[in-house]
Amino acid sequence: MRRLWLIFSQAVTISVAVLFVVSTLKPEWLRGAAPSSVVAIFEAPGSTPEGEASVAQGSYAVAAQRSMPAVVHIFTSKEIRTPRHPLLDDPVFRHFFGDPSESAPRQRSAGLGSGVIVSPDGYVLTNNHVIEAADEIEVALNDGRKFPARLAGRDPETDLAVLKLQTDAQLPVIAFAPPDSLSVGDVVLAIGNPFGVGQTVTMGIISALGRTHLGINTFENYIQTDAAINPGNSGGALVDSGGNLVGINTAIYSRTGGSLGIGFAIPVSLARNVLEQIVATGEVTRGWVGVEIQEITPELAESFGLSDPNGALIAGVLRGSPAERAGIRPGDVLIGVDGRNVRDTKGMLEMVAALPPGNVARFRIRRASGELDLNVEVGRRPTPAVTTRN
Q1: What positions does the entry give for substrate binding (predicted)?
Q2: What whole-number distance in Å separates Cα of residue 371 and Cα of residue 369?
């Protein structure tokens, strides 16, 4: 009996040992064949190791893939007039030798930039300086398709232009971000065609908002970013982490011509306003009263006896302008337009530009004799002359 008990005890011990080894090294032998869905669940995103999960969370591939198809390359060309030798205008020379210029090949210069498809109808937003003075424009999509384009309208004072693709093909379109959705520190992507190497995405953050007094354009309200923007990126898209358009890349601050981490983009709210006006009328219409304005410095405020430097100093009044007819004089300080306070020259310029031409606006003026209100019939801001950039 004792011998049988010993045999049973040894068998149990060996069985327990085998069970421990199998459960430790080969647990699937005990569970049987595991369903394929279990393995798939463990391999699915979110069940990856911690390091891989952090890489996925730090990726902006979805935002790039969503916005890149709508960012295009713009190729422009224009004819160059070469200097004409004085002998070619000599009748005797032309009688014997003819006019060589008639058979000479015409020279053309090429340019490149970027743009953003913003409408299924084929409207493209870009910078005015990208297509300025061009007589031929071609747009290439990221999928390799190319279409000729015509200029729908331009606004040199914001450096924006709108192109219309000449095609009925289905086009990718970028989504606009809500106005005032940006904050300093937000991550953004700059997409364009730098140096003509092909579509490129760079990442940075919003460094500042509302940058003005840069001397780039008449109307300035720039987004500043450290996302790399280089020649060829002009007119391209600045998008948020969701792939929505927040700005049009326009300019950089650089001592060498390359990116130094200070780039500027036109906010989407301003770009949308210009786009809608150009599509509707072919041009941008702004209010105008015909005054020359000057920033009020603390020294000027003291010399004029002003208690604060707020407002815009009227340095000059154009003859026959709406301002002159309303009684505005040089030396006046404009402190309000239609009940809104004017803090500086930039604010005054934007307020007047937003007034509909033909309407009467109330201007609040500060003079030595005190403050008074003048009714000004707003005129239409003259269209600036289009200049050629070399």
Answers
A1: 129, 159, 232-234
A2: 7
- Has 207 been annotated as catalytic? no
Same domain, 120 and 224: yes
236 shares its domain with 164: yes
Based on the domain organization, do 223 and 329 belong to the same domain? no
Find the length of the chain: 390
- Structure pTM? 0.70
Say how many C-beta atoms besides its own lie within 10 A of residue 129's C-beta: 21
What amino acid is encoded at 371 in this protein?
Answer: E
Residues 262 and 300 occupy one common structural domain: no
Does residue 90 sit within a domain? no
- Do both 142 and 243 map to the same domain? yes
Q: Considering the candidates 234, 240, 259, 332, report the single residue annotated as catalytic.
A: 234
Tens of pLDDT, residue by residue over 141-173, are 988 899 999 999 999 989 999 999 998 889 999
Helix (H) or strand (E) holding 360: strand 360-367
Domain boundary among 246, 269, 284: 284
Write the DSSP string, 106-174.
PEEEEEEEEEEE--TT-EEEEEHHHHTT-SEEEEE-TTS-EEEEEEEEEETTTTEEEEEE---S----P
The secondary structure of residue 25, as a DSSP letter, is H
Contacts of 151 (CB under 8 A, 6+ apart): 131, 137, 161, 162, 163, 164
Catalytic-residue membership of 159: yes
- For the chain, the first-to-last Cα distance in angstroms comes to 111
Q: Which residue has the higher pLDDT, 55 or 348?
A: 348
| Contact criterion met (CB below 8 Å) for 359 and 226 | no
Q: Are residues 121 and 262 in the same domain?
A: yes
Same domain? 306 vs 194: no
Which parts are annotated binding residues for substrate?
129, 159, 232-234
pLDDT digits (tens, 9 = 90+) for 19-77: 655 555 554 455 444 444 322 222 222 333 344 333 346 788 899 999 999 999 999 88
Which residues sit in the known binding site? 129, 159, 232-234
- Which of 284, 312, 328 is the C-terminal boundary of a domain? 284
- 207, pLDDT greater than 90: yes
